[in-house]
Every structure is written in structure tokens, then in C-alpha cells.
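Please, structure for the following, as C-alpha cells.
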Amino acid sequence: MPSFLLCWLPRRCEEQPTCIKTTVTAPRLAVAKESSNQSVSRTKAKTENFQASKIMHFPHYLLTAVMTAGTIAYPSSPSSQSNGLPTINKPRQTANGTHTMGFIGCSMAENVAQGYVAVGGEHMWGPYGTGGMVVQSWTSSTSASWRLFDQQVTKYGKPAAVWVQICIFQNPGVKYDEVKQMIANARSHAAPDATIYVTGQPLYPDGGTCFLAGANGPKVTDDMAKQAAADTTLNVTYPGAFVLRQGEVQDGCHANAGGQRSLGNQAIQFWG
């Protein structure tokens, strides 16, 4: 039977909360199912019913404290649990610490990082001057772009995750071998066993494109990111496509302030 730490929150700020540890079963938290070969004594049943009744008569702010102790995950069927009870799991963690995720890309990645900081994101690095750094800027592990990346590593430590953005100019475009080399270089500059995310440039679902990448450029980069994620030898994750909507673009390519915030919120949805 799961244990809970139950706290009475004070009505006045100067008072301290009162907490107790209990193993009661509340009707709104779990529904017990007695197995055919299990006998529950009448005394025990009365005790648990009394304790459950006490919980349900606590003020709502106590029940709120109970619920925040864990996330209830209900099984797909009672048979998936030996006792028919829902499982209490810890809240899902979407981030692994402040500034423990790096990124590479061009000014479009900078737009994401700018918006990410603006909306309160802390897991990924903020912008660090990657404007114009398309795929070919990252294919040599000793390029000026990677030296700039390593300056961030000196500041924050080797990242436990890296986002690789496939960003291109219309000419020369991009080759898949170049994407694979970018990913290999990201691993060599990150912490061992780092998680690698890969995306293309933002897409424009309401029409338009990035003139710097060419008429079909953004879709080309998104398709290549999906190809990399499907390549099991690379072990990378495609979290989805960034998008810029009508009114979020300032020059036919880059995000305006509102677009940056939109991109930042999308990044938080992707990796925290």
C-alpha cells in the first residue's frame, strides 16, 4: 500500500505546515480490487475505511498537497497490475539541469534560443552568435563554429544533450553525409552518451519559405532530419518540426519577436 506525506497548509503565513505520513487509501486516489483468494479482516477494513473517511473530510488544500506528491498512472486494464491498483509515479522530468543542453545551427537556431530564454527556458544554452553557420560550418570538428561551441562548453561544461539544426543556404544546399558528420562532431564535443536531437529549419505552414534556403529549402532540411532519426546507426531523436505562423516572420525568413517566443515555447515542448 503506498505511503503519502499529508500536510495541512496554514491559513496564516507565519504558521508552519503540519505533516503526517500515512498509508491510507483514499477513494479518489485508488480503487482497491480484492482478489478471489484474499481475505481482508473486518477490523482492518473498518480501520482503512475510517482513515479514508478522515482524508476525504480534510480541506481541499490538503488533498492538493497529496496529489502533487506524484502522478497517478492508470493501467490499461486491471490485469496489468497484480492488485488492480493504479501506480503512483514520479512526475516526468523534461530537463536535466540548467544550461546542460547545447545546440548548433545558424541564425534560425539563434531565433529559437532567443525565444527560449525569453519564455523562461533554462535547460538549453541561450544564443551565442551562430548567425550564418549553415551545415558546412559544422562539418569540420575544428572549425571556427566548433571553437565557438567549445567556449560555451568551457562556461557550462560538456552538455548532456545537443540539438543539431540542419540549416542551409540554397547554394550549396546539403548532403546527407554532411548531416551525419555534424552529428558525429556533436557527439565528440558533448558528454559521453549525450542525447542528440535533430531538426530542420522552421517550416511555414501558412505559406512562404525562407528565401535564404530556397523555395523548398526548409522542407528539405526537415526531411533530412527525419531521415537521420530513422537511421538506427545514428541514434538521434527527431522531436518534431518547428513552425513559424503568419505574422511571426520579419523578413521572409527569420522570426520576429513574437515568432521567437513561439519558437521558444515549441522548444520547451520538445525537450524542456
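The CA atoms of residues 28 and 35 lie 20 Å apart. Confidence is low (pLDDT under 50) at residues 10-14, 24-95.
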